[in-house]
Design a protein that fits this description.
- By secondary structure, this protein is mainly alpha-helical.
- It is built from 19 helices and six strands.
- It has a two-stranded antiparallel sheet with strand order 1-3. A two-stranded antiparallel sheet has the order 2-6.
- Helix 13 packs antiparallel against helix 14.
- The termini are far apart.
- The N terminus is likely disordered.
């Protein structure tokens, strides 16, 4: 007989916990979901969905990818070694989603929980590499779960998402604040996550008949479709008040994060007026120029004194997003039509699909502009830095396509870091004042010290598979 725990869940609490700090350590990787019999599964789903914006607004990934600069505390952008623990993700969001499935009150809620779990597992493995997957969330029988290889995790996620799309029925999805129970939207989202996961493996499986291309084409061909319009975006919409957007919270009482000079220089070189949205002149929501734009990026990878001197001399330095795009109720984009469409352009350029590369590429850029309430001028597409000039089918257009993916993913830092590690584009110069021994851009998170003490055997097995050991310079499997 299952033990009963008092599990009081307050929706107002859930949305107020929407920053990256929500993913702090709440316990062990393998708490047993079977011990909880009374949770409101609707509240559990709402809780986790409110946190999804935190994964898509990860500032550390954005600093490694040089979307962002630090204006005061420069540790992350100088590549100091952090102690970041992933066990809280397991015992928090992943555990809550597993609890929904254990309660088994609604088939469709189980499927949604499964889809969200796969999205989170991808986020975790993209940061650390090998992590618990197949034995995670299994309770006391697997208190020290093995660390699956990243290849096993990716293939497991892709297979699980493929199956999930077929498992929906007519049951209700209560507590769904992302798609309000719209099954068609969840199917498109699952297919899109699967498509993007397949493309992330392009370094490992390059050929048009290999695993990555096969799974990419399978996701694209699924009758449920993929995200293709901005109305279909995977986005967390916050109502404001007690339930604030992550990007609002970034500047709520602080101002230590900036759009980097790397990013503003790129945007200037492209004459890209998305910069009018990407950079804001003030963190305040109440001043007369609250919605003013800025293209004054803060130098990347410099020590605190240099950054502070720059911002003091340039008070309208670019904050991340213009003020009206980071209000309490501003959305956080998780996966968009533009990102998916530009991924399709890349796949077509590899010869994986027969889609028209140039037309798909242009559509992806247009969708990005539209997402931000803008229209791309015709002249944008004719400039040499944007127009595709190489023949399709060989991957020769990758630099330009990847650069547009980088711009279109802003300000989703993990998406940009993944893109750069996978493609090498855009070309980035390491922090001038880097403090790590290699002085190179970070390729992965290191395992936290408590993982060595709580699951030593599994961690050491995972480390043995890393070329170079447990360092920031070692590359995760898909980056090799």
């Amino acid at each position: 007989m299952k033990k009963k725990l008092i599990y009081i869940l307050s929706t107002s609490l859930f949305f107020s916990l929407s920053s990256c700090d929500d993913l702090a350590d709440f316990g062990d990787t393998n708490k047993d979901p079977s011990v909880t019999t009374d949770p409101s599964i609707a509240a559990l789903l709402t809780n986790v969905e409110s946190h999804i914006g935190g994964y898509a607004s990860d500032s550390r990934g954005g600093m490694y990818a040089q979307y962002f600069s630090e204006t005061q505390y420069s540790d992350a952008s100088l590549y100091s070694i952090p102690q970041i623990d992933h066990t809280g993700i397991y015992s928090g969001d992943l555990y809550d989603l597993e609890n929904i499935k254990v309660q088994n009150q609604s088939n469709n809620m189980n499927v949604v929980a499964t889809i969200l779990q796969q999205y989170i597992f991808l986020n975790v493995t993209d940061k650390w590499g090998d992590v618990p997957y197949s034995e995670a969330l299994k309770g006391v029988d697997f208190s020290r779960p093995k660390y699956d290889t990243q290849e096993e995790i990716y293939k497991g996620v892709i297979a699980t998402l493929k199956t999930a799309v077929t498992q929906f029925d007519g049951s209700a999805i209560t507590g769904d604040v992302i798609f309000a129970g719209d099954v068609a939207q969840w199917k498109r989202t699952a297919n899109s996550i699967r498509l993007m996961a397949a493309l992330q493996l392009s370094k490992k499986f390059k050929g048009a008949s290999e695993y990555a291309a096969t799974e990419f084409k399978s996701a694209l061909a699924d009758p449920a479709g993929v995200i293709a319009t901005n109305a279909q975006n995977f986005v967390v919409k916050y109502p404001g008040g007690n339930f604030k957007s992550n990007w609002f919270n970034t500047y709520n009482g602080r101002k230590d994060l900036a759009e980097s000079a790397t990013m503003t220089t790129l945007m200037g070189s492209l004459s890209d007026n998305r910069q009018t949205v990407f950079g804001g002149a003030t963190e305040s929501q109440t001043t007369a120029n609250a919605n003013a734009s800025s293209n004054i990026g803060v130098p990347y990878g410099v020590v605190r004194a240099t950054a502070e001197a720059f911002t003091a001399a340039n008070p309208t330095w670019a904050r991340v997003l213009r003020g009206d795009k980071r209000t309490e109720s501003s959305p956080v984009y998780v996966l968009t039509a533009s990102q998916v469409t530009l991924a399709r352009a890349e796949a077509a350029d590899y010869g994986w699909t027969t889609e028209n590369v140039a037309a798909t590429y242009k559509l992806g850029i247009d969708l990005s502009y539209e997402q931000w309430g803008l229209t791309a001028p015709a002249s944008y597409f004719t400039q040499s830095a944007v127009a595709l000039s190489a023949s399709a089918g060989t991957g020769a257009n990758l630099a330009k396509i990847a650069t547009q993916q980088y711009v279109a993913s802003y300000p989703n830092g993990m998406a940009a870091w993944n893109l750069w590690r996978r493609t090498g584009y855009p070309a980035l110069t390491p922090a001038v004042n880097a403090v790590n021994s290699s002085r190179q851009i970070v390729r992965r998170y290191t395992y936290a010290s408590n993982e060595y003490t709580s699951n030593e055997v599994s961690v050491k097995e995972a480390i043995a598979r890393l070329t170079g050991g447990d360092t920031q310079d070692s590359r995760v499997w898909w980056d090799q």
